[in-house]
């Protein structure tokens, strides 16, 4: 009996210690302090006075600094209302001490907080007050709790959203019934029950009906990490499907697997009227060949009736460096005189364009050519999720609703094992980890690009996308915790944390796009496409709003766009021509080019895509 009571006693003691700690800190706070606290949030440090926030826009702001187990909160002395700043602990990437005991100058001694949302925040402390050490220690403890053996704030957050259960938003059986997939051709398999076959997949998988569980197990042995081909989406009319998996383990010796070849043949056969299956490899071919030396590889001619297409989407290391360069040109100041050339040098929009173009290719194959598609990259949890998620957004109007987009994220990103913990380092102090990469941010940027080109197509607004990105980092909710379902089940994330979707759906009116008109999705001129399909152009603006700086780039053909397929140079020199050619500002779906401004020779060979309200035509 004594052993049974020990865990409970330990929990009670821990709770009592928290209460005592909170009381002691409350006593240290001035009586007039009113720091907004969330349920479960508590002060972890007394007020730090005479702190100066070095704002890059307003200049130095003197005030007080407060630390809770969820956020850093600064309040200025002046102003009505006073200037405030809060930074969730989960957003912090690293904390650095600035200056030392010999530092001279009014603001030369303090702390710099580098954030995952592109902000670098600097606070200056008074050396004689010796406050920096305490603040630094508390920041390291609560910004990186996993590194010190503690848990994330999401496990302490106690907000109740009565009537809203975000954890139930996605049900795999309900979703595939909605698609009309569960029939004689496709079934739900429990081959991965207990995560026995693949620990990065969910326990329930949608697979071809004629593929036995024994076949699936054999295929898992030939696919990287055991990630077999599973169904993402099926076309209700032509029955073409989108499936996803990881790379085959071909290796340097060119190994084959009859069962894997048979699996793809089965996927091809369940598509009526099609004698070809397209394998979309998101990687550059050079990378795929290099992976053969490490045991990976790609499908060869032994896969009968299959065509392999490489999409040249950059890997996590390239993307990470691109985002770093983008951050450098956006914060703390923007060089307006060289903005376009600086932007081009980051290659961020080039990567966004590449992802969008790849997704459009998939949509074209499924919708117009009525062929099934298998998508993979190396392990099938980064670029694969980007392409499948965007293709579903373009193909299925349901996923352009608020509920449908939540289901899309749950299915394509969370359930199928995108490594949120590793890619974003929740609660981990190893900011230099080479496995971190803004893959999900890229996807959300692509979604934003689509909403800009089709402002009436999506039920959700920009605030919805930004809220998701904010809480990707904040660790307030459990939605983006851990790397896969197996880890979430072990940590009891569903039972012990709140879903982001509960919060969003409880105030859904804030995320509604007032221009949403699902019946207006007939922008595509090609009559072979359904009116429910949207196909974005390969033109992009910079998506950063609030903390992700919203700085539009002119997306007029031949007038300064940094990501046209054949590349553009001397952008700043040509920037002057934009004012003369952007004459379609009344168009709600795109900027256009007036055909009268260009000779027939310039237009020759380019395909018209949209007819704007001002009767201008956008070519590519």
How would you describe this structure to a colleague?
The chain is an alpha+beta fold and 620 residues long. Helices cover 33% and strands 15% of the residues. It has helices at residues 2-28, 132-143, 172-179, 213-220, 258-269, 285-292, 316-330, 339-346, 348-367, 383-395, 402-415, 420-424, 439-453, 462-474, 485-491, 493-496, 500-505, 571-574, 578-581, 600-603; strands spanning 43-55, 59-68, 71-76, 84-88, 92-98, 110-115, 120-124, 186-189, 205-208, 230-234, 241-244, 277-281, 306-310, 372-376, 608-611, 617-619. Strands 4-3-2-1-7-6-5 form a 7-stranded antiparallel beta sheet. Strands 10-11-14-12-13 form a 5-stranded mixed beta sheet, with helices on both faces. A two-stranded antiparallel sheet has the order 8-9.
Quick recap:
33% of the residues lie in helices and 15% in strands. With 620 residues, the protein is an alpha+beta fold.
Compile the SSE list and pairings:
Elements: H1 2-28, E1 43-55, E2 59-68, E3 71-76, E4 84-88, E5 92-98, E6 110-115, E7 120-124, H2 132-143, H3 172-179, E8 186-189, E9 205-208, H4 213-220, E10 230-234, E11 241-244, H5 258-269, E12 277-281, H6 285-292, E13 306-310, H7 316-330, H8 339-346, H9 348-367, E14 372-376, H10 383-395, H11 402-415, H12 420-424, H13 439-453, H14 462-474, H15 485-491, H16 493-496, H17 500-505, H18 571-574, H19 578-581, H20 600-603, E15 608-611, E16 617-619
Parallel strand pairs: 11-14, 12-13, 12-14
Antiparallel strand pairs: 1-2, 1-7, 2-3, 3-4, 5-6, 6-7, 8-9, 10-11, 15-16
